[in-house]
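Target protein
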Amino acid sequence: MTTQPQKNPLWFSIVAVIAILWNLVGVLQYLGEVTMSDDAKALLDPNLVALMDSTPKVITAFYALAVWGGFVASVFLLLKKAKALLLFQISLIAVVLNTGYYIFFTNGPEIVGEAAYYGLQSTIIIVAVLLVYLSKKAISKSWIS
């Protein structure tokens, strides 16, 4: 027997829409990077281009999983689907693996700028953790099922 979702508070729907927009930015960033032309790359710092071109395919796959998983999870959250939790968890793991690669195995933070890099990556991880938490809370409160 499945539990019917309870009426969720208005703030929950607002946060779900913001999560969709947040993750859409990630999707657009990902698509911009993987489809970037050589002409566009020529406008970037050569060290950044070298870093992008040397990124292993598995790390790019983690990036895709993080942004697409987060985006679909956010849509599921708005649609009151409990599958959002699993997708947010997968997205969080992919974000951590992707970030870990750049921090521990590349000079990415130096190329981009350490303050900017760590600030953005910390924000992304914090948002991902909060979305996992929100999904768990929504399930426990029967806002989603």
Observations:
- The chain has one domain: 10-140.
